[in-house]
Amino acid sequence: MKHVLFSAALSLAAAFSAAAQAQPQLRVIAFGAHPDDCDLKFGGTAAKLARAGAAVKFVSVTTGDAGHQEMGGGALARRRYAETQESARRLGIGAYEVLNNHDGELLPTLEVRRQVIRAIREWKADIVISPRPNDYHPDHRYTGVLVQDAAYMVVVPNIVPEAPALRRNPVFLYYDDNFQKPAPFRPDVVVAIDDVWDVKVNALDAQVSQMYEWLPWVDGDLDKVPKDPAERKQWLSRLRTGRISPAIRAALEKRYGAEPAAKVQHAEAFELCEYGRRPSLEELDKMFPK
Ligand SMILES: [Zn+2]
Predict the structure, then answer these.
(1) Which of 11, 21, 150, 214 is the most buried if burial means most Cβ atoms within 10 Å?
(2) pTM (predicted TM-score)
(3) What is the 32 CA–ligand 1 centroid distance (Å)?
(4) Model confidence pLDDT, tens digit, residues 66-97
(5) Distance 34 CA to ligand 1 centre (A)
(6) Cα(143) to centroid of ligand 1, in Å?
(7) pLDDT range class, residue 21, cuts 50, 70, 90
(8) Please, which residues have CB less than 5 A from ligand 1, an ion?
(9) What is the 171 CA–ligand 1 centroid distance (Å)?
(10) Per-residue pLDDT tens digits for 254-285
């Protein structure tokens, strides 16, 4: 009897994997200006997408070699690269690439645009995510511009001809932010991430140079960071638990229903960019795990 149960379980598993293969794998690439930006804005959703079988890649457009009060240059770039690889491992995503451009000096040049086009094509992305082109940090702004400038160009074969062009423009999305000008962020799709909040915090915990050194130093809070590794991770979790905006709360209610949405503590939201493929909101909703 035991044997029969076992073979039944095996054929069920085979049926599941056949069903998984029948659906083409969703391929997602996320761009950040710095080697912790994607983790902060998209880490929870990325972990959920990866669990659901999607291929997820993060790209930092700069090396992050200006992001510290004591270190800099190559030594900091190498340290931060190692942090990205550990963060990717903890999130369970497929890849984390760091492009060789200086932190704090990013410009929307043709050279960097070509790097972005190449990265999107090589990942064969269905979805591309970036910051909006209005932001307090020039590197964030220009990352938004660079990714916007790659939208559509990724399907033009004579642009970056050595990397085969995509046959279909991907869906381009923006991370959420609080900037009001020229227009406030609009949550077209929202993902509750309470079920992976510990995974996200654990990934951020790998970004030691940022979460526990540089960012607290900028805020004048370096003395508030606990020394004990377990305590500082709890501190990080509290620090990163933000208020959910009314617009995102309303989007949560629409997606999950009023009662479940009221209980959500952590969420990530995304706005559809007009320059990529524009799926209906229903199709967009289906692309993201609940
Ligand atoms: Zn940044």
Answers:
(1) 150
(2) 0.92
(3) 7
(4) 999 999 999 999 999 999 999 999 999 999 99
(5) 5
(6) 10
(7) low
(8) 33-34, 37
(9) 23
(10) 999 999 999 999 999 999 999 999 999 999 99
